[in-house]
Amino acid sequence: MSARVSGTRRGEWYELMPGKLNPSEPGGRYEAALLWLTRELGFPDKLLRELDAAGEIKLAGDRLRLRLFPPRTSQYAPVERPIDLLYEDDFCLVVHKPAGLKVHPDGAGSPPTLANLVAAVFAQRGEPIAPGHIHRLDEYTSGPVLYAKNAMAQLKLDAAMARKEIGRVYTALVEGQVSPALRVIHEPIGRDRHHPSRRRVSPSGKDALTRVELVETYPKASLVRLTLDTGRTHQIRVHLSHAGHPLVGDALYGGSSRLFPHQALHGESLTFPHPLTGELIRVDDPWPEEWNRLREQLRQGKES
């Protein structure tokens, strides 16, 4: 919590202490409180108007209360399975997504997804919360997924995502020895006309930039750390394959799956501005356990 913002959740309401408000503002202290919410907290205008119209903003003395946590029912059926919560507070949730699990359903009859597991967490607690994901990861990419736990957090984090203020760092095991000189891959990415689920580097595609840091080399493979300036579908997989270093296990983009059944790609860390305080939050997600075995095989020079 920022030093200039103090707050406490009280059931469906959130109580803030805005400090001294100027009663000379047109509309008195109440309007001054709304102005404080806009200027100091960057409170979303649309949500502020909705709360105001519904009588869900109350000012009593030096306490400002907002109904930020009305009951919400998840659209996803809860499925109880083990799940790793990496970070949680009243506004945000970061969950580890294992490889092989989709973030949310994409059609009728789809198997359980991370959304179903997250819904089960709050069903078990008896909390009427329906978190919304802020970003996605490919089905076979592991790593942290950020969720908003109320409408304010959803609006603020969606806006932060659009402004590229949410940072994600990935690690990947790739085929071949990557040159330390390979620092940036800046190639446009578009759809592959010959394969509906594949993307490719294309002059007519959308701008895409991937930053590359070499971490380790093995006889026939490398470990790289990657950050994205853009967020195109399959961006890392397309760019590394184009550079001659497909991801280990990534058969769709030219990698061998002899040692690993899917792309060896993991979201290592996530940073985001907290929707209430603006404080930069960093959440780390340790490498998957199966990577230890794979890296040992690569150190021994086994063909990926």
TrEMBL record:
It catalyses: a uridine in RNA = a pseudouridine in RNA. It comes from the Bacteria. GO terms for molecular function: catalytic activity, acting on RNA; pseudouridine synthase activity; RNA binding. Residues 93-242 form the Pseudouridine synthase RsuA/RluA-like domain. One of its GO terms (biological process) is enzyme-directed rRNA pseudouridine synthesis. Keywords: Isomerase. It is an enzyme of class 5 (isomerase). InterPro entries: PsdUridine_synth_cat_dom_sf (IPR020103), PsdUridine_synth_RluC/D (IPR006225), PsdUridine_synth_RsuA/RluA (IPR006145), RluA_PseudoU_synthase (IPR050188). The active site is at D138. Its EC number is 5.4.99.-. Belongs to the pseudouridine synthase RluA family. NCBIfam families: rluA_subfam. Responsible for synthesis of pseudouridine from uracil. This is Pseudouridine synthase. It comes from Paenibacillus faecis.
